[in-house]
Amino acid sequence: MRTAFILSPLLPIAAAHFTLDWPAARGFDEDKMPTFPCGGFNTPSSNRTSIALDANVLPVDITFHHSQTAVSYLLALGSNPGDNFNITLEPTLGAHGLGEFCLPSIPLDSKTLGVSLHDGQNATLQVVTDGDNGGGLFACADIVFSSSVTTNTPTSCKNNTGVEATPFSGSAATRIANESDANGAAQSGSGTATSSGTSPTSTSQGAGVPLQTASWGILGAAVLGGVAML
Ligand SMILES: *[C@@H]1O[C@H](CO)[C@@H](O)[C@H](O)[C@H]1NC(C)=O
Ligand SMILES: *[C@@H]1O[C@H](CO)[C@@H](O)[C@H](O)[C@H]1NC(C)=O
Ligand SMILES: *[C@@H]1O[C@H](CO)[C@@H](O)[C@H](O)[C@H]1NC(C)=O
Ligand SMILES: *[C@@H]1O[C@H](CO)[C@@H](O)[C@H](O)[C@H]1NC(C)=O
Ligand SMILES: *[C@@H]1O[C@H](CO)[C@@H](O)[C@H](O)[C@H]1NC(C)=O
């Protein structure tokens, strides 16, 4: 009994926050996951995962270890982007459930990226979730777009039973998960220097949100369709 009493405060809050499984993460250190921008791994890997250039999509397979999660997918072009993940690939999603969660075909068209990709183009994917005590949790994967790869072959790409995700709506969709809570609301105290302090339900049309966005409408329709069938 005494042992249990002593040990319990030392137990980790969660076994793991999330893992980025494909493309392969730079590394994984549970304790450093709250460290922006790449969970404690600041140096790009020399071993990049090749992504099929002509497929124009990026599969991303992660595993949730929190039962409710806000998750964002960002991309930086270049060989060593530092913390400049300035391409947002998806609206921020609100996910429920534990285990594997794969988006098989995040669109990478030139409209999304603002530029055309070319053979040998290096890039880094950043996956962000909301942190346990505010802030975010981060994992990065270094990739290279290759014309000699014709099909992306993730080691696994499926959704665990009970895992589902829908894009947040309104301003929550453009709020990166490190500034969001699991429900999509702004973290208290975050962004107060630059935001106008609007409530999560306020509208922001025409606000000129400086994010490049993927084919959100298509994704949203697909996701909502899936939910409607439940
Ligand atoms: C390089 O990455 C590939 C794919 O992630 C992996 O299978 C392989 O083991 C890695 N090789 C080294 C030397 O790290
Ligand atoms: C891409 O990154 C690799 C190291 O991972 C580097 O050797 C190569 O020169 C880079 N390619 C370009 C086009 O910068
Ligand atoms: C992203 O950052 C790169 C490197 O600074 C820059 O060349 C590019 O124009 C930026 N893209 C956007 C959409 O801000
Ligand atoms: C997993 O679920 C998301 C939405 O909840 C969906 O967009 C995606 O296509 C699913 N992945 C697979 C492999 O079916
Ligand atoms: C959250 O992550 C985004 C994407 O990398 C970054 O631009 C932003 O500065 C981060 N916000 C904070 C408060 O660290």
Average pLDDT metric: 83
CATH-defined topology: Coagulation Factor XIII, Chain A, domain 1
Number of domains: 1
Structural class: alpha+beta
Corresponding CATH architecture: Distorted Sandwich
Number of DSSP helical runs: 4
User: Would you identify the regions where 5 or more consecutive residues have pLDDT less than 50?
Assistant: 1-14, 191-230
The end-to-end distance, rounded to whole angstroms, is 45 Å
CATH class group: Mainly Beta
- Biggest sheet record: 7 strands, mixed
Strand content: 25-35%
* Helical fraction: 10-25%
Task: Write the H/E string, N to C.
Answer: HEEEEEEEHEEEHH
The number of E-state strands comes to 10
Shape: globular
Explain this structure.
- This protein is an alpha+beta fold.
- It contains four helices and ten strands, in the order αβββββββαβββαα.
- The chain has helices spanning 2-7, 110-113, 171-174, 216-228, and strands spanning 18-22, 49-52, 57-64, 68-77, 87-88, 93-96, 99-107, 122-130, 136-146, 164-167.
- The strands form two sheets. Strands 2, 4, 5, 6, 8, 9 and 10 form a seven-stranded mixed beta sheet that branches. A three-stranded antiparallel beta sheet has the order 1-3-7, with no helix packed on it.
- β8 and β9 form a beta hairpin.
- The longest helix is centred in the last third of the chain and has 13 residues, at 216-228.
- It is globular and about 45 Å long.
- The N and C termini lie far apart (45 Å).
- The relative contact order is 0.21.
- One 2-acetamido-2-deoxy-beta-D-glucopyranose binds next to loops.
